[in-house]
Amino acid sequence: MLTLSEENYLKAIYHLGKFGSQSVSTNAIAEQIQTKASSVTDMIKKLAEKDLVNYKKYQGATLTESGRLTAASVVRKHRLWEVFLVENLNFKWDEVHEVAEQLEHIKSEKLINQLDAFLDFPTHDPHGDPIPDKHGNIKKTDKELLASLKPSDECLCVGVKDSSKEFLNYLDKNEIALGTHFKVMSKEDFDESMTILINNETKSISKTVSNNLFVKVI
Amino acid sequence: MLTLSEENYLKAIYHLGKFGSQSVSTNAIAEQIQTKASSVTDMIKKLAEKDLVNYKKYQGATLTESGRLTAASVVRKHRLWEVFLVENLNFKWDEVHEVAEQLEHIKSEKLINQLDAFLDFPTHDPHGDPIPDKHGNIKKTDKELLASLKPSDECLCVGVKDSSKEFLNYLDKNEIALGTHFKVMSKEDFDESMTILINNETKSISKTVSNNLFVKVI
DNA sequence: ATATATATTTAGCCTTGTCTAAATTTAATT
DNA sequence: AATTAAATTTAGACAAGGCTAAATATATAT
Ligand SMILES: [Mn+2]
Ligand SMILES: [Mn+2]
Ligand SMILES: [Mn+2]
Ligand SMILES: [Mn+2]
Predict the structure, then answer these.
(1) What is the pLDDT of residues B36-51, one digit of tens each?
(2) Single pTM value for the model
(3) Rg of chain A (C-alpha set)
(4) I need a labelling partner for B47 at 20 to 30 A (CA). Which of A64, A87, B133, B189 fits?
């Protein structure tokens, strides 16, 4: 059975290295987990010992199959809890993350599978991120960044790349949520800002924003 | 903010010493928490430092008001989660405790208050134990041990004193649950076993059993 | 190819919470 | 009251997980 700390390291590698398939640097993990590189080295060694990561000195780490499965399970729990908080406990999408960071470490097969059923087997969390199934598989839907669209393109908002409180609050203020319909009106060459039509209102959004919104073209 | 371990020590004192009002011995805490007396001494000192317990060498510990409130909050969370697991996630009353032991340490005011509302403000957990309100108060209902009743007394089962898996399984097997109606038919002088009427069936139960069932006389 | 900068690892220390063994205090018996 | 037993505390050690500073390896720039 893994500790909370070990689970967090596996999750970091999972997120930073394409589900753990790509090598992730010590520094990147330290940044993600808000710790020091030296602590990361220690922990990676321990995880390698337990056959959860592949590690070669100075070459970063990837997840083993066992490590990937564990990380996916933690992510699954995180996202299912986020759904529960929003759907049943009146949390807003910018309030769920910290609590889910705690709940994702609760150990009970039955709990998570029953929660999954209770929520009617959701496929995505409140930020549009896919929920791994109990075998760690995610079926990836095709989505792209709003920034990549051209004038006259229409799409639905299906996810956020940055799910920081600040960005989510910005979206709330501008009445942008999952499912919101966008039509690209124009794109400024100078700074790549966009004018888009939302609910019959035109709004100008910066490149930073369009680069952090996932959409599905329709 | 307290650690998981500190919370568990406070809870132990709360449970062993009448909500922490009575002095609890080092050994009793060690037994409850499954640790060694020397570890308890260390932790009690730390909690006294933080003004959560009153401690005098060799005299055991009581909870301060602050400690009592914290302990009650942990117990509140534990019991609310138990209700959730039984009511919404298909857990049986003998399956909830271990998971609640983990969930009780999740830190979020909003989470627990929303959970309380979601469950419609339950007053008792699946074992009949009262749920403290957000101020740590419990309104105690009058209940007594089945063992104290006399022939011809009738009552409803309102709680279990021992909520071990073994006892709960025994009750399941004998179709005894919260709300079950009992009528005492006779009491054996020799071993204090009782014959009671349950669902029009007479059953003989040992003193051990009648001493662990809380009932409300009607 | 060499020098410099950056990334990573190592070494040594710290805190939390635990343990065992020894010392001390309190409780129980003679 | 003196002795023995039991409970409690102290002393010293350890593992987990973290940190800082120093050493080493890799990457970048001259
Ligand atoms: Mn999240
Ligand atoms: Mn999310
Ligand atoms: Mn319980
Ligand atoms: Mn209970």
Answers:
(1) 999 999 999 999 999 9
(2) 0.95
(3) 19
(4) B133
